[in-house]
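User: Predict RNA recognition motif. (A.k.a. RRM, RBD, or RNP domain)'s structure from this.
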Amino acid sequence: MNIFVGSLPFSIEEADLRESFEVYGAVDSVKIITDKFTGRSKGFGFVEMPNDAEAQKAIDELNGATVQGRAIVVNKSEPKPEGERRSFNNNRGGSNRGGYGNSRGGNDRGNRGGY
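Assistant:
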């Protein structure tokens, strides 16, 4: 089972997180998500446990637990439906991410006054 772990202290390391979950059973992998530019933790991560019963027990026991002074959030990770994913690759205009009054978004060179 893939488990989401949120509200992590920025100083926690993957080994520490693994240790917390191994109390409940085998852990396949641990990944703390980091900012790609600074390398700093974003405060959340994922833990993969092969046994669903052990994973559920870890979720039940650790959700709301205090780690380094912070109450963490622990729940089953559910993949986002395909329609909700945001892709920044292959974006050649047409994106309306900025919302600067330019209704067609992206590289619309005909509308310079939309700011």
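Helices lie at 14-22, 52-62.
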